[in-house]
Amino acid sequence: MTELGMEIKKAMKEKEEQREGGLLGGVAEEIREIEWPAFNKVLGTTGVVLGVIAGSSVVLLTVNAVLAEISDRVFAGRGVQDFFG
């Protein structure tokens, strides 16, 4: 390998090593720059989300129960074959 080729290879290797260290350093720097919300705000937002999920579940289960009851009364004792036979 020529002297120029060896210098290029050495420079590329050094640049790659700097890039790897730079990546981790860059990640750490970005993490330090993040403005994290206050714990109480996170707790409150999480409570709201869980409340909405619980409320939606109650509403959907109630609608399902009402529709199931209506379906049982409308189609009482009838199977699918009774409609096509």
Question: What's this, in brief?
Answer:
The chain has 85 residues and is mainly α. Helix content is 85%, strand content 0%.
Explain what the structure shows:
There is one protein chain. The chain is mainly α. It has two domains: 1-35; 37-85. Helix content is 85%, strand content 0%. The protein contains three helices and no strands. The protein has helices at 3-33, 39-74, 80-84. It is elongated and about 90 Å long.
Specify the overall morphology: elongated
How confident overall, as mean pLDDT?
84
Counted up, domains total 2
What gyration radius follows from the Cα positions, in whole Å? 33 Å
The helix/strand class is mainly alpha
Unreliable residue stretches: none
List the helices and strands and how they pair.
Elements: H1 3-33, H2 39-74, H3 80-84
Can you tag this structure with a few keywords?
0% strand; 2 domains; elongated; transmembrane helix; 85% helix; 3 helices; 85 residues; mainly alpha; SECE1-like; membrane
